[in-house]
Amino acid sequence: EPTVRTELMEQIPPIAIFLQESRPKFPTAFFEYLMPIVVRYLTDVNNQVRKAGQEALLILLEQDLVSQSDIENKVCPILLDLSAPDSDDEYKVEAVNIICKMASMLSRTTVEHMLLPRFCELCSDGKLFQVRKICAANFGDICNAVGQEATERLLIPKFFELCSDSVWGMRKACAECFMAVSYTTSPEVRRSKLSPLFISLISDTCRWVRQAAFQSLGPFISTFANPSSAGLYIREDGTLSIRPSAQDVNANSCQASNNITMTSSSANAA
User: What cellular component GO annotations does this protein have (predicted)?
Assistant: First the structure.
C-alpha cells in the first residue's frame, strides 16, 4: 500500500537520529536496514513514495548520517541511472532535482567526479526543457559546490548555452542566479566573458528576462568589488550580504561600553 510506504519514509529520519545517538547499542543498524530501504524507495513506482524517499534522503544528508561510501556506492549510482538519457521523463526530472539539492551537502570531490559530468549533460538535454530549467535555476549552487577551477573549465560553457536557450524561462533563471555564478569565477572571467553575456540578457527580447537581469544588475556589479575592502560576501543561502567593518564593530563596542558606563553612573547617583 503506497500510503504505508510513504508513512514509513517519513519515520526514517527520526529513527536514524535515534540510532545515531544510541550507536554503541546499534552500531550497524542504520547502514544494514534503513539505508537500503531509502535507496530502494528512490525508484518506487509510486510518485508520493519516491518524493517521501527523496525528502528523507536530504534530511539524512543534512544531518550527516549517511557515510561517504554509501553516498558514492549506493546513492549516486541510483541517481545517475535515473538521470540517464534513456530514463523515464518523470524519473529524470526528479533525479536532476535531487542532484542539485544534495550537491551543497557533499564533498567537492564527490560532486566533481560523480555528479558534475551528468549535470553538464543534463544542461544540454534537448528532450525535456524542465530538466534544463532545473539546471539553470540551481546553476549557482553547483558552481559554489565545485569551486572556481571546475566552474570555469566545465560549467561556464554550459551557462552560455542556457543563457541563449530558446525557452525564455531558462534565460530568466540564468539571470536570477547570475551573481552566484559570477562570484565563483575569477575577475578576468567576469570581465571578459560574463559581462558581455549579462549585457545580452539585459537586452533580451523577452521583458521577463530583462526584468530579472535588471534586478540582478546590482548584485552582479558587487562581485567586481574587493571583498576585503567592500565587505561584501555571499551567505550560505546564496544571498548577498555586507560584513560590518572593524571600525563599525569597534564603534558599536565603544557605544555599548559607554552605555554600560552611563548606566553604572546613573545607578551610583541614585
Answer: cytoplasm
Other CB atoms within 10 Å distance of the CB of residue 161: 16
CATH superfamily of 67-235: Leucine-rich Repeat Variant (1.25.10.10)
pLDDT tens digits, 38-54: 999 999 999 999 999 99
Cell numbers at 8, concatenated: 514509513
Show Cβ contacts of residue 140 under 8 Å, excluding neighbours closer than 6 positions: 177, 179, 180, 181, 183, 184, 238
At 130, the amino acid letter reads Q
C-alpha grid cell, residue 126: 534537448
Note the pLDDT tens digit of each residue in 132-165.
999 999 999 999 999 999 999 999 999 999 999 9
Instruction: Give, in order, the Cα–Cα distances in Å from 1 to each of 5, 33, 36, 200.
Output: 7, 20, 19, 52
Report the distance separating Cα 124 and Cα 162, nearest Å: 8
